[in-house]
Amino acid sequence: MWWLIPAALAVAAAAALRWARRLVVATVSGPSMEPAFADGDRVLARPVRPGRVRPGQVVVVLPEYEGVRPRRPASRLLIKRVAAVPGDPVPDGLGPALAGAAGTPVPSDRFVLLGDNPGHSVDSRQEGFFAAARIQGVVVRRLGETAGNNSQ
Fold first, then answer.
1. CA–CA dist 30, 33 (Å, integer)
2. Comparing C-alpha atoms, which of 121, 1, 145, 150 is closest to residue 61?
C-alpha cells in the first residue's frame, strides 16, 4: 500500500501540469482597457467554454488576422470586456459596425466585446461581432504590479 502515495502524487502533479499549460498570460498593449488595465499590465486568463462567458467579464481574444487558435505570442492578443453574449440584445449606441443590429439578439457563437476606453479601443464598435472561437480565456487576475500605477 505504500506505493499509493507516490502514485497519487504523480497523478495530482500530472493534472496540475495539464491545467497550468492551458492558462494564458497576456500583456496589455495600449490604453484601450484603462482604467481597469494599463499599458504593460500582465494578466492571467483561463480557458473557458463560450457558453460560460458572461457579460462584464474581461476576455483575452485573438485578433481577426490571427485566424482561429494558431500558436501565437501573448503580445499579439487583445483584451476586451464582454458587453453581450449570444442571445442577449445588442446594446444601443455601439457605432457603425453594429448600429443596425441594436436591440436584436447577438447571434450564436458571437460576442460583443468592448474596450473600457472607447476613444482608444478597436472593438465591436468598429469590427462588429467577435467569433466565439477567437476567445482564448477569461481574465482571472492581474500578474504583478500595475504597470500604470507602480508608484502606488
1. 8
2. 121
Number of Cβ within 10 Å of residue 46's Cβ equals: 15
User: Which residues lie below 8 Å from residue 49, measured CB to CB, with a gap of 6+?
Assistant: none
Q: What is the pLDDT of residues 9-59, one digit of tens each?
A: 555 544 444 544 589 999 999 999 999 999 999 999 999 999 999 999 999
CB atoms within 10 A of CB 18: 9
Helix/strand/coil for 74 = helix
Where would I find the beta strands (DSSP E) of the chain?
24-27, 42-46, 58-61, 78-84, 110-114, 130-131, 135-143
What's this model's pTM, rounded to 2 decimal places?
A: 0.78
Task: Provide mean pLDDT across the span 103-112.
Answer: 97
Task: Provide the residue type at 108 as one letter.
Answer: S
